[in-house]
Amino acid sequence: MQLTPEQRARLAAIGWRDEIALPDDAPSDHRPARVLIQHRNGYVVHDGEEESTVQPAPRFLKRSLDPTERPAVGDFVLLKPGNPVQIETILPRHAALTRAAAGERYQRQLIATNVDTVMVLMGLDGDFNPRRLERYLALVQASGAHCVVVLTKADRHEDLEAVMADVMDVLPDVEIHPVNAKDAASLGVLHPYIGPGQTVVVVGSSGVGKSTLTNTLLGRERMATNEVRANDSRGRHTTTFRALISLPQGGCLIDTPGMRELKLTGEEDLDAGQFADIDALAAQCRFGDCAHQSEPGCAVRAALDAGDLSDERWASYQKLRGELDVQAANLEAQLKRKGEPHVANKALGQRLKGKYGRR
Q1: Pfam families under this entry (predicted)?
Q2: Per the annotation, where are the binding residues for GTP?
C-alpha cells in the first residue's frame, strides 16, 4: 500500500511521519487515520481531512484480548469501508505510555501511543511531590518517549530556585520548565516539543493545569477547567477522557484525565533511569547478592552513612523496586498463560535483576 504525496500532506496535520510502515498487502480501499478519542461505544478518528466515528473490528472486542492490543488514542490505523466503518489494522507503534490499571487484578492500561514527548505536569502548590516524579519518570522511560517536567503555577511561587534544586536533585538529567499555564508567552519554552510531526501527551494530577495549558497552546477555550480545592490543591476530573488535538504550532497534543494512581507495569528498568547512581553503587558492593543491610563492604550503606545518598531517595528506590518485582511477577504469569514466552522471559529477567542485581 502506497500513499500519494497529497495523502501524506493531509496526514501530516495529525502527526503522520514518513517512517510509519504501511503493510504492502493492505487492500487499496482501506485508508489510514489516527485515533483521536476512545469511547465505550466506539472511536473518533481523523483521516487528515475530517473526523468520523468508527467501530473496532470484532476481534478487538474479545474479552480475552490484552487491552494493550486494542486501538488507543494516538494510534495510526487502517479503516475498512462499510456500514459502519471499522478499524481493521493498528499500524506499528513507535512508543506507548502504559501503566498498570487500578484494582487487584493485574492488567496493563494504555494511556497514549505514538508519542514523542511526555510532559509531566506538577503544580507548585499542594500538588508538589518530588517523589511522585520518580514514579512518573519510570513509566515514561519504559515507554520509549522523551520526558519533560512542567512545573505549573510558577507565578504563585516565591522561591523557584529552591524548587528547581529539589527537582533536579530527584531527576538530574530531565528537562524542567516552570511555567504559568495561563500565559502564552510563558509556554513559549514548550514550543520546541510541539512542532510539526511531533506528538506530546500531558499527564498529571487533577487540577494541575493540563486543560488550562492545552487551551493556552490552542489559543482558545476548548477544554473545561475548574479551580482546585483550597485545603489540599486537588482538582476535580474536568477532563474525563483522553483526546488528541491538533495544535496551531503544527504538532499534536493528547490531553488526559488526572491520574490518582500510578502503578508500575513490571516492564520498567529503574537501574537504567533515574536510579542509575544507586545501581552503580550496588555494583561496588563486596557481595553480588548484597541486601544493603549490614553486610561488610556494602557501598550503598557507606554512601548512606556518608550522606552521599539521602535516606528519602533510598527509601523511594526500595519502594519502587519492591513494587516492580511484584508487577514483573504478575506480568510474567499473565504472559505465560497467554503463551508469550519471549515477553514473559523479559519480565522474569526484570524480576531476577531486582532480586540478585546485575552480576
Answers
A1: RsgA_GTPase (PF03193)
A2: 152-155, 204-212
